[in-house]
Amino acid sequence: MATTLARGRDAEAHVDRAARRRGWQRVARNYSVRGGELDLVYRVRDMLIVVEVRYRARVDYGGAAASVTASKQRRIVCATRHLLAMRPHYANCAIRFDVVGLDEHYSMDWIENAFYAE
Q1: Domain span at residue 56?
Q2: Which of 3, 24, 27, 1 is nearest to 89 (CA)?
Q3: Verdict on whether the full-model pTM lies above 0.85
């Protein structure tokens, strides 16, 4: 039986492969700072796409995308601001926040512009 961490890594790898098939250039994976973490970040032309990957084997408490609370969104925005401060060459890029929910069969529910920075 796979651990939660291993399933999370597998889910991220699955999403990463799908994004790269789209021709997206990965900028960061598991970018972690004190205030939060970014699962995957891609550059597509003049846009940075920050992707939060959520795996849920069961939907009893809502789908994976529903688990990205306002608090989690704030942490993602905080980490994105840090990434931009550390890599100023991305400062002029538009930012998009996507959430990808995966179920136990790795079916993806990719929500573009899932939330916005405040």
Answers
A1: 4-90+104-115
A2: 27
A3: yes
Distance in angstroms (rounded) separating the CA atoms of residues 64 and 111? 11
Choose among 81, 84, 75: nearest CA to 35.
75
Q: What is the CATH classification number for the domain harbouring 35?
A: 3.40.1350.10
Domains contained in the chain, number: 1
pLDDT in tens, the chain (118 residues): 568 778 888 999 999 999 999 999 999 999 999 989 999 999 999 999 999 999 877 666 666 667 789 999 999 999 999 999 999 999 899 999 999 998 888 889 999 999 998 7
Q: What is the residue-wise DSSP string for 30-79?
A: EEEETTEEEEEEEEETTEEEEEEEEE-S--TT--TGGG--HHHHHHHHHH
